[in-house]
Amino acid sequence: MWKNHTLQPGTAIACRTVEDGQRRMDKARAGLLSLDGAVLVRMAVDEELGDYGEPEYLATMGDIPGMEDDMAA
Question: What are the structural domain ranges in the chain?
Answer without folding.
Answer: 2-72
